[in-house]
Amino acid sequence: MDIKLKGCLYGAVAAMTYGMNPLFAVTLYNDGMNPDSVLLFRYLFALPVLAVMIKMRGHDFRLTLKETISLFIVGMLVATSSLTLYVSYKYLSAGIASTMLFVYPVIVAVLMVLFFGEKLRLQTVVCIALAVGGIAMLYKPDGTTTLNPIGCIIVLGSSLTYAIYIVAVGRDSYKKIPTLKLTFYTLLFGALLYVVRIVCFSEFVCPPIDRWDMWLNIACMAIFPTVLSFVWTTMAIQYVGATPTAILGALEPVTAVVLGITFLGESLSFRVTIGLIMILVAVCIVIGGKKNHNA
Fold first, then answer.
1. Which of 10, 45, 273, 295 is 20 to 30 Å apart from 55, CA to CA?
2. Confidence at residue 68, expressed as pLDDT on a 0 to 100 scale
């Protein structure tokens, strides 16, 4: 398989798994957990899985001082992005938060143009416009929903830090670190943020031992929107670049819509159908453009 096509597929699947975040997080909130506790369990459950995968690949866990500092910075970016996104669910509906989060492809494109000399191609502009427009079509106002300004600021902070993370991981210095190892230390260092917050500002909430459904939610959250999503996102960035990977992230809210229709009995309206088509067209342009560009 062509390496660029493979990168696009990794980016698409990574976006779809990352789109499962609200499915698990909101359910755990309803059971009495807070964002810091949910995220700490999410990261701690993911680390042993990644450690086993690293050993199976024959990699070691050694880091140079430079790599340690670099991964600590990336870990803080990821942890901050996760925290602000999860906190935003307290102020905004998961649908609105997921929609606003998708500002990050625009931020990625701007960062790449301003700081790394990437040319802003017409194809990129069209893809971003289609994706953002399509996601706007997915939003279904109920006539009573208002946008909490605090929630909006928080989720935009999540978009900014996630965009910086995507750009950073695409740099050559990170490409030299094996993907699984990079993801392991990103989550390990990121977990420190939640430990500090729980000790100093928040409260540690542990699910009851007999609540197997809560533990299953945590395990699924650690596997799908964490291990699989972060590993595949990193691989996509390294194969096709930061901007195309960010655009492929449009599949995150598509996943949320599909899950809502499948499991929550939501209907598929004409407006939502148009939005889905716009997003899928943007994704197809990214994939087709990458194949043609490297043919």
1. 10
2. 96
